[in-house]
UniProtKB/TrEMBL annotation:
Top-level lineage group: Bacteria
Protein name listed in UniProt: LacI family DNA-binding transcriptional regulator
Keywords (A to Z) from UniProt: DNA-binding, Repressor, Transcription, Transcription regulation
InterPro entries: HTH_LacI, LacI/GalR-like_sensor, Lambda_DNA-bd_dom_sf, Peripla_BP_I
PROSITE patterns: HTH_LACI_1, HTH_LACI_2
CDD domains given in the database record: HTH_LacI, PBP1_LacI_sugar_binding-like
Native source organism of the sequence: Luteimonas composti
Occurrences of domain HTH lacI-type (ranges): 3-57
Molecular functions per Gene Ontology: DNA binding
Amino acid sequence: MSVTIKDVAREANVSVATVSRALNGHPNVAEDVRQRVLGIADRLRYSPHHAARSLSSRRTQTIGVVLPDLYGEFFSELMRGIDQVARERGLHLLVSSYHGNPREQGAALRTMRGRVDGLLLMSPFVAGAEALAADLPPMPVVLMNPALVVEGQASVGVDNHGGAMAMVRHLVEAGHRSIAFIAGPEDNFDAGERLRGYRDALSQLLPGVEPQVLPGDFGEASGHRAGQALLEGPQRPDAVFAANDMMALGCLFAFSQGGLRVPGDIALAGFDDIPLSRYVHPPLTTMRVEIAELGARAIQRLLADEQDGPHPSRSCELLQPKLVVRASSQAGGSG
C-alpha cells in the first residue's frame, strides 16, 4: 500500500498542511520541522501525487506549446530549442497543433486552460490577429513570430523584412539583375514581411525593375510548381529567391528535372537555413534563422516574465537573420 501525506504527517506529529508546505519549500516552516518532515518522507519513500500537488499549489510544472503545424524541419528545430530549456528547468511540455487552420486555434488554446503554467503560441495569421487577445487564457503567454505585436504582450520574432532585404542585396551584389520571388501563404505574417522586404530592396537597389512574384505556400510542392512555371515562362530570371528553404528545394528539383544548372544557368536562394539546406547539391544560399534559438528564447522569456512579471518596455524581441552564402547563388563561398 502506498504511503500518503497523512502517514508522513502522523510520523512527524504535524499537520498535513505543514507537510505540504515543508515539501514545497515554503518559508513559513521552522527549519527543524522542515528537516524532520523531509527525513521522514525520505525514510518512508513518500512520493507526492502530482495531480494532487497541482491542485493544492496551482502549479503543473508544465508549459503549453500551440503551433500552426508540427510537420517539417522548421517546427522540429523550434521544438528542439523549447524542449532543451524545458528539460534544463525540469518542466514538461504539452504540445498542440491547430493544423494551419486559424479557426481551430481558439479550440487548441482552450484545451490548455488549467493544464499548464504558461503558454508559447505561434500565430502567424494576419486575419483575426487583433481578436487573438480574446482567446488567450489567463496565464503568462509569449507569442512567437506574431502577426500583430500587442503592447505589453511579450513576443519573440524574426526580422523577416530586414532578412529579405539582405538576401536581395546579396543577389544584386553577385551580379543578378532579374530576381524572381516565390512567395509564401498570403495570410502568413512572416511570408508577407519577406515579400515586403523583397519588393523594398528591389525598389531601392534596382529602380525600374519590375518584381516577379510567383505564388507559394511554404511547402516543397509549391516551390516545385514555381520552378516549373519559370522553366516554361517566356523569359528566365537571373536568380530566384524563395521565401523559405523548403520551397527553394522544391524549385531546385524542378530546375534539375528541366536540365537547368544551378548556379550555372540560374541562381537560387532560400530563407530559414533548415539543416537540409547545406546537404543538397549545390548547397543552398539562405538567410539563417536560428530556429532552435527562437524556441529557446521564447520559453526563457516566458519563465522570466512568469517569475518577475512582464516588462512592457521590452515586450517585443526580434532576432536578426544572418546571410549564409553557399554555392547556389553563384557568389562563391560556403557555409
